[in-house]
Every structure is written in structure tokens, then in C-alpha cells.
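[agent] plan:
  1. take the single chain provided in the ticket
  2. run structure prediction with default settings
  3. attach C-alpha cells to the ticket
  4. add a short note for the reviewer (M.T.)
[agent] executing step 1
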Amino acid sequence: MYAANKASDKTIMKTRTFIAVTTLAGALLVPAIGAPCAQTTSTTTQAGHASKTILETAAAAGSFKTLAAALHAAGLTEALSGHGPFTVFAPTDEAFAKLPEGTVESLLKPENKAKLQAILKYHVVSGKVGALAAISAKSAPTLQGGSVHVTVDDGKVKINESTVIKPDIQASNGIIHVIDSVLLPAS
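[agent] step 2 finished; step 3 output follows
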């Protein structure tokens, strides 16, 4: 009797796991109706590989002007134009606008370069990590040294407290996940 219950419990767990994974995959592959989404393009070659770097892809989208300015001020544009691969959790201009007034302007000052670099590196993971792999991993070490935590809440993928509004944008040197707020590392 005990062995039969144990086998039944394993079957139930496998079924629940399958349902959870397929539900998450659906949540990632089918965007919510009416959800805000950055218009992001990635040019691909005939072989299906993205031809633009992460920075070129973000610049073409037009909704990452603040991120581009911050990367330039921090001296990180060249690094993210390299071979990678990198995974970037990219906050939109609207995400930066959610920060307290004066925060972005203060961070862009030369005397705050180290702090700005730390914040921006907290948005970057070494390697190309797609949304499903990130969900499975549950956390990822960033180039800043801390880790971001990946969860699913009401069918939405979250990176710490930020919501992924557009996952898996392919670039020649990695992948971009658009997020709705700036990630701040622990002080």
C-alpha cells in the first residue's frame, strides 16, 4: 500500500511540474493583452542569427535613451558591444522615470561613476540566459557581484521586484529582457 501511494505521489508531482512549466512557457510566449511593451527590433541574418549587438538593438528600439546615456556615462558601452554573450535586464525610459526625482541626474555625474557602474552591472549576467532558463535557475549572478532573483507572480516573470515586459530579444552578443523598473543592488 505504501509503495503504491509513493508511486502515485510521484505521478502527481510530475503532472504538477509539467502543468507549471507549460503555464510559464505560455505566459512568456503569449504576451498579455494590452500589456505595455517596448517596441524592440533585432535584425537577423538569413541563418537566423541577430546581426545587431545589444546596444545597437536597444538604440534601435528608441525606448532606452536613459539606459544608453547611463552606459555612456559609466564607460560601459564598449564592454557591452563586445563578443559576450551577455544577458541584459534593460529598464525602459519609463522605468528610469520611476526613480525619485534627481536620481538619474545625480548618477550621471562623474563623481558618481562607480555607483552608476555598480547599478548598471547589476542588470547584466554573463552568458546568454533565456527567460525559461532564468525561471528554472531562480537566480543569477550579475557582473556587479550580487545575484538577481527570478520568480513568477500571477503569470508574470519578475527579476527581483521588476516585471519582465518583453523577454528574449535576441542580439548578436546576447539577449535582452525588457523590464519595467530599475534594479538596485543591496547597499
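[agent] step 4 note for reviewer: Residues 38 and 63 are 7 Å apart (CA to CA).
[agent] ticket updated
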